[in-house]
Amino acid sequence: MIVVVLSSIKRWGANTAEDFFLSNRDMHWWAIGTSLFASNIGAEHFVGQAGAAAATGVGVGGYEWTAAFLLILLGWIFYPVYRAANVATIPEYVERRFNVTCRVVLIIYSFVAYIITKIAATLFAGGIVFDVVLGWNMWVSISVIIAVTAIYDTAGGLTAVMYTDGLQALIFTIGGLCGMVVAFSKFGSMRELQETLDEAGLGNFFDILRPPSDKNYPWTGMLIGQIISSIWYWDIDQEMVQRVLAARSLRAARTGIILAAFLKVLPIFMIVFPGMIARAMYEACVMSGGERFASWCMTDLHIEKESNKAYPYLIIKVRAIVNHTCLLYIC
């Protein structure tokens, strides 16, 4: 990762504001697609989403699959408008469309929201990983993450970020899918996973469309409310749109978006199922009186606040996936 960052800084170093913030609007489709995917997937997914899967099942995967359709909206409805306006940021577009007051309000709102939601969640998730895997203090972990991110963002601009994202996407995808395969090989087949969860009274874990009364993922919320609110994230939010604004052409932007949409199908396999396997290992241990997966009885994955440790526990307890997963989180 360090070699890639230094190489990108040297080769594609920013000389102007457009270079720094938009990579001189010359990004290839594959860089756009992988960057969109990697910008969304991170430690907070391998901690939070896998934890949600351990606590509630496959329903959380609905966020991933609906995202694929929202990305298509970005490429065929929103991006052509931004491109025609020739803007560099969403606040700039808002000012042109409305007025400078709206631009300032959007900037302040986005700044606060980024700190409270995205940045805080990412740092907390990274801290959990380093705590479980390396035994690092939460504050030490957060300091290291902030320092490394600030260095390569400041030195190389969007170009360094997007090419680094490409490597991260490769690590996430290969590492996550390999992790799923290894986790299944340690536990058993999909049928055994379902039977174990059914026996533990968790039969609804495999329901992705759930009744309106479900407190976590009712189909009404997932197919209506969640999609409406997620339009902001995928089609208007500066973090996502900036990657597409850097495209060298409309064709490159749309091809990259299609790639990202296909990649968004994968997290349910590389994140959600491993989280469910971790919960099934815990339940199997409890139901067998410690005869199966003995070390899992002490994990307390049945407690919702402990479920965020599901994937990190897989790293520690299923030794065969330690190496690739450590690389995944560090990068």
From TrEMBL:
GO terms for cellular component: plasma membrane. It is a multi-pass membrane protein. It holds the Pfam family SSF. The keyword Lyase does not apply. Its main location: membrane. It comes from the Eukaryota. The chain crosses the membrane at residues 65-85, 106-130, 136-155, 167-187, 217-236, 257-277. Keywords: Membrane, Transmembrane, Transmembrane helix. One of its GO terms (molecular function) is D-glucose:sodium symporter activity. It is found in: Membrane. Belongs to the sodium:solute symporter (SSF) (TC 2.A.21) family. This is Uncharacterized protein.
